[in-house]
């Protein structure tokens, strides 16, 4: 059995006076797995993802990723942690509009201190393999939604993170582009990338991952491993 | 609460930083304006008020007792144009000895009472002189004598003595001291007054011509040559206002700068608020707000905090004005100066008017925007601008956060312009202020003439040439022996000595101080305005006020009366010197040889040869001087004029406020910018940008603007300085030499330009910290 990449134990998070967005959630994800976190809107999926990414801190419980106690990191520490361990893909792409595709992709490497030339070589390979190399010099505003999400994936993979997190990666895409991105995630997982995808779309969950974790009102209600993966 | 009220309230509460910036900016602008305004008023009004209260003398005329009589003079009260008059009062010029030291001659007037129809003298200390043996000293006499001090007159028959029983102030400056008329007669060698004084108030005396007409009428009413001199109240007013008039152009410049700044900042803030609030405006209009209501809502959003800032500013201005005005009151000998209510009203109305206007203009533009456009604009800031700059910056061999920051200003040219403008004003203010301080110190240096390494017989700035007084340290040592000691001393470089004499100049009231030099004093720190330094006997150099008073120019000849003997000198240069009201004549000792053969050097100025230790030199020179009863020192006299101190602290205060306001302008710009880019910041942080990198990015985003602002602001500050300084000199009756005006050096200017970057960086630090601290998850949730 492979080592756990993510270990959540009894994690709770509650915003202000509202009901808990996440309650006593425990979850273990091992290297090479692909997991979908499935639930209706407002069920706490993004909250869980943010906790894993170190973008937010739990009120109680512990979050360990690749041996790092994420819940204990300070601001600078969690930024360095994300550089090294996490690639993130968002629903609305979140590309920087005034940087070219190439500059967007190499940004995480540059923030980590890599020289532009070196970073550029890797970014070109990535763009090539994702089929968007010819758009390297374009600005994100010129690209279609599907192409933009591919750029976002390339950027997420730039630093070779052990863990790829995607929050509703197909939510802003038409179904053809959505299927395209799901296919991409599947391929990445097949090459060994650990992937966690957040979605409210059961079809997407089933098409691109082997395990589905169900969230309802901040609680994990089911954790199902697809037959094929057994 | 009405819908409009609700919108305003939530608008003020939601945009906390712009609201706070409006409060602070208006507060500082109002503080500066109240202070400046109060000083402006205080600098001019005290004389007029005090003069009116004392029924001041429009013309103080001095008559020769040998050529006219008291009866004839009494009749001049009926001269055409004379409204009221006082006198005749007997007068005499006396030279008392105080503690065995002789002081400068005093003009004493015999008066039974400080009251009268003209020149109602205010007794500020002690009481009026009621009997023989008593004198009341004028607070403006230059003598600082405690009550009870004795003046002795051993040379006069009966060796009379006078005890100081009071100090009084005549705004018209009619005498140095007052005694009873019978006592006055006892102060002259032959027991008779040498002159009479008449004080006139004319029906019309607002202009020099009117006063002159009155004087001519009086002259015509008395025997030929009876009037020995006359002093117009306009001349007194000029002298009296001279000290504070140095303030006026400074304060006007600062006041204008402060006002323009507050217009700029408030305009900026309001425009920025409206700019980022366009979507909100779109929503308001979509739900049915009329353009007029939108304008009103946004005007109130600016006016509410501005009103709070104004109230705070008025309070702060009054608090600061108290110490400053009390110094001013001291200088005028008046009390109870406060900030006039109309200054407050003008400043408050002006500030709020400016805020309302700025808010109105930008809100009106916003109110006119089509709803659809406003909704569309609000969603994403127009992209596309500054991409070339971003691409270029990306190629630079700099850490990525820095190059991202550097490219930022090009994306929002409008906002960048407002940040640059804020820095321009800050840099201009600092440049202006440092120049002012430098000029002031040059004036003080020029006035102290303390270029010499070592001095003998110079005890302080008041006792230097032109400052005779009882505190004067007189050297009893044999002058020739001292000179020999100096010349024999190894290490002596250049040296010269000065001797002081009193002189009168025909047509000029009061005494003129003559400083007679032995040796070349051209290196002594005398700043020439025009012409050259004296080179031989018969030549003289004089300050601007002397030229004005005698209506002469460089190249003219004037006749001085020293001990009653005429000495004619040719003026070869104009020098900067403010002592004795600028009534000084610098000449070679040889010029006075016949008029004042006994004149002995009292002060000596020595430059040690290069390579000689000043301390060692003083020690060994003092060993040689000791048997002669003289002592040398290397301590420099320093002027501690109240005016200079007040001016320097005011300058520092106003500069600090202007820099703070400039910093606020930058802060506001950066806050709006980071607010707008909150999502991008969140993304960058999600990709691994550390807080430190975030701060670096935000701070570098203003570096170029700061540099541009510094480069533009410094020349503006220099130009302002070069325009204000000569104006300031003129209003004080002085022409300023180049050394005072050309105070900026290239390295200083470079530093000042770099100061623009400092202002920008300081202004951006706070919002940069906020940006680094915003929760990434929250930032990403923002649309
Ligand atoms: N920053 C926040 N402040 C306050 N409430 C939040 C915040 N983020 C999420 N929530 C609330 O927490 C609950 C879970 O949100 P989220 O994790 O975003 O749900 P999901 O991603 O499943 O739609 C929701 O009720 C949401 O309103
Ligand atoms: Mg979500």
From TrEMBL, chain A:
GO terms for cellular component: membrane protein complex; plasma membrane. Keywords: ATP-binding, Nucleotide-binding, Transport. Transmembrane segments: none annotated. This is ABC transporter ATP-binding protein. It holds the Pfam family ABC_tran. One of its GO terms (molecular function) is ATP hydrolysis activity. Residues 6-228 form the ABC transporter domain. PANTHER family: IMPORT ATP-BINDING PROTEIN (PTHR24220). SMART domains: AAA. It comes from Streptomyces griseicoloratus. It comes from the Bacteria. CDD domains: ABC_MJ0796_LolCDE_FtsE (cd03255). InterPro entries: AAA+_ATPase (IPR003593), ABC_transporter-like_ATP-bd (IPR003439), ABC_transporter-like_CS (IPR017871), ABC_transpr_LolD-like (IPR015854), MacB-like_ATP-bd (IPR017911), P-loop_NTPase (IPR027417).
UniProtKB/TrEMBL annotation, chain B:
Residues 457-480 are annotated as: Disordered. The keyword Membrane applies. One of its GO terms (molecular function) is transmembrane transporter activity. GO terms for cellular component: plasma membrane. It is found in: Cell membrane. It is a multi-pass membrane protein. The chain crosses the membrane at residues 20-42, 246-271, 302-321, 341-364, 417-440, 650-674, 695-720, 749-772. PANTHER family: ABC TRANSPORTER PERMEASE YTRF, MEMBRANE COMPONENT OF TRANSPORTER-RELATED. This is FtsX-like permease family protein.
């Amino acid at each position: 059995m492979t080592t756990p990449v993510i270990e959540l134990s009894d994690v709770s998070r509650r915003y202000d006076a509202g009901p808990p967005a996440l309650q006593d959630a425990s979850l273990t994800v091992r290297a090479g797995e692909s997991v979908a976190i499935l639930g209706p809107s407002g069920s706490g999926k993004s909250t869980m993802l943010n906790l894993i990414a170190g973008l937010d801190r739990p009120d109680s419980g512990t979050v360990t990723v690749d041996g790092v106690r994420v819940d204990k990191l300070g601001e600078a520490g969690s930024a360095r942690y994300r550089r090294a361990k996490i690639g993130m893909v968002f629903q609305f792409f979140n590309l920087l509009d005034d940087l070219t595709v190439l500059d967007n992709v190499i940004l995480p490497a540059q923030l980590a201190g890599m020289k532009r030339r070196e970073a550029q070589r890797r970014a070109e390979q990535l763009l090539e393999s994702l089929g968007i190399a010819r758009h390297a010099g374009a600005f994100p505003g010129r690209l279609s939604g599907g192409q933009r999400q591919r750029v976002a994936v390339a950027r997420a993979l730039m630093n070779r993170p052990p863990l790829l997190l995607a929050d509703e990666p197909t939510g802003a895409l038409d179904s053809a582009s959505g299927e395209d991105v799901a296919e991409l995630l599947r391929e990445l997982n097949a090459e060994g990338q650990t992937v966690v995808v957040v979605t409210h779309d059961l079809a997407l969950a089933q098409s691109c991952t082997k395990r589905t974790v169900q969230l309802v009102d901040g609680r994990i209600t089911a954790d199902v491993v697809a037959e094929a993966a057994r | 609460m009405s819908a409009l009220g609700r919108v305003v309230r939530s608008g003020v509460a939601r945009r906390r930083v712009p609201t706070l910036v409006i409060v602070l900016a208006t507060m500082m602008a109002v503080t500066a304006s109240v202070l400046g305004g109060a000083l402006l008023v205080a600098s001019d009004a005290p004389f007029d008020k005090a003069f009116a209260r004392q029924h001041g003398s429009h013309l103080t005329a001095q008559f020769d007792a040998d050529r006219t009589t008291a009866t004839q003079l009494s009749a001049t009260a009926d001269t055409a144009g004379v409204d009221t008059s006082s006198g005749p009062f007997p007068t005499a010029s006396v030279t008392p000895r105080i503690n065995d030291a002789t002081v400068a001659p005093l003009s004493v007037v015999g008066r039974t009472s400080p009251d009268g129809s003209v020149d109602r003298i205010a007794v500020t200390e002690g009481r009026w002189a009621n009997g023989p043996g008593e004198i009341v000293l004028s607070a403006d006499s230059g003598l600082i004598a405690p009550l009870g001090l004795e003046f002795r007159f051993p040379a006069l028959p009966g060796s009379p003595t006078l005890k100081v029983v009071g100090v009084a102030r005549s705004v018209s400056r009619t005498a140095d001291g007052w005694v009873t008329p019978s006592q006055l007669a006892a102060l002259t060698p032959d027991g008779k007054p040498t002159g009479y004084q008449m004080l006139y108030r004319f029906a019309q005396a607002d202009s020099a011509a009117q006063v002159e007409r009155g004087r001519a009428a009086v002259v015509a009413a008395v025997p030929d040559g009876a009037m020995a001199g006359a002093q117009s109240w306009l001349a007194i007013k000029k002298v009296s206002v001279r000290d504070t008039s140095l303030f006026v152009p400074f304060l006007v410049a600062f006041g204008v700068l402060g006002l323009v700044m507050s217009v700029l900042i408030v305009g900026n803030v309001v425009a920025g608020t409206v700019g980022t609030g366009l979507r909100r405006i779109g929503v308001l209009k979509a739900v049915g707000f009329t353009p007029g209501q939108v304008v009103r809502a946004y005007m109130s959003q600016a006016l509410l905090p501005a009103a709070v800032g104004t109230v705070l500013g008025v309070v702060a201005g009054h608090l600061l004005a108290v110490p400053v005005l009390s110094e001013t009151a001291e200088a005028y000998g008046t009390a109870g100066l406060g900030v006039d209510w109309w200054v407050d009203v003008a400043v408050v109305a002006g500030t709020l008017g400016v805020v309302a206007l700025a808010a109105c203009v930008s809100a009106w533009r916003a109110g006119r925007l089509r709803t659809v456009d406003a909704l569309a604009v609000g969603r994403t800031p127009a992209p596309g601008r500054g991409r070339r700059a971003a691409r270029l910056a990306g190629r630079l061999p700099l850490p990525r956060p820095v190059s991202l920051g550097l490219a930022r200003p090009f994306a929002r040219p409008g906002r960048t312009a407002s940040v640059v403008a804020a820095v321009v004003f800050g840099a201009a203010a600092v440049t202006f202020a440092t120049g002012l301080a430098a000029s002031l110190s040059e004036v003080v240096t020029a006035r102290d003439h303390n270029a010499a390494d070592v001095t003998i017989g110079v005890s302080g700035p008041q006792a230097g040439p032109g400052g005779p007084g009882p505190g004067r340290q007189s050297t009893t040592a044999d002058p020739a022996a001292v000179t020999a000691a100096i010349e024999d001393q190894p290490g002596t470089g250049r040296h010269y000595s000065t001797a002081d004499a009193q002189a009168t100049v025909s047509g000029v009231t009061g005494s003129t101080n003559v400083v007679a030099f032995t040796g070349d004093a051209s290196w002594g720190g005398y700043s020439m305005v025009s012409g050259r330094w004296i080179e031989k006997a018969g030549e003289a150099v004089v300050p601007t006020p002397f030229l004005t008073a005698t209506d002469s120019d460089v190249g003219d000849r004037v006749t001085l009366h020293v001990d009653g003997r005429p000495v004619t000198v040719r003026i070869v240069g104009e020098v900067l010197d403010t002592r004795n009201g600028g009534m000084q004549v610098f000449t070679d000792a040889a010029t006075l040889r016949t008029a004042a053969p006994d004149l002995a050097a009292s002060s000596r100025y020595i430059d040690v040869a290069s390579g000689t230790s000043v301390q060692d030199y003083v020690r060994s020179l003092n060993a040689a001087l000791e048997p002669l009863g003289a002592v040398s020192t290397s301590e420099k006299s320093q002027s501690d004029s109240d005016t200079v101190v007040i001016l320097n602290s005011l300058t520092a205060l106003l500069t600090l406020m202007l820099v703070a306001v400039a910093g606020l302008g930058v802060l506001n710009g950066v806050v709006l910018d980071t607010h707008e880019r909150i999502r991008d910041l969140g993304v960058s942080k999600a990709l691994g940008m550390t807080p430190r990198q975030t701060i670096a990015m935000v701070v570098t985003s203003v570096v170029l603007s700061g540099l541009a602002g510094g480069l533009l602001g410094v020349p503006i500050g220099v130009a302002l300085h070069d325009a204000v300084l000569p104006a300031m000199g003129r209003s004080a009756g002085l022409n300023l030499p180049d050394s005072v005006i050309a105070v900026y050096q290239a390295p200083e200017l470079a530093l000042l330009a770099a100061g623009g970057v400092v202002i920008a960086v300081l202004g951006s630090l706070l919002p940069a910290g906020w940006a680094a601290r915003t929760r990434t998850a929250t930032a990403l949730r923002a649309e």
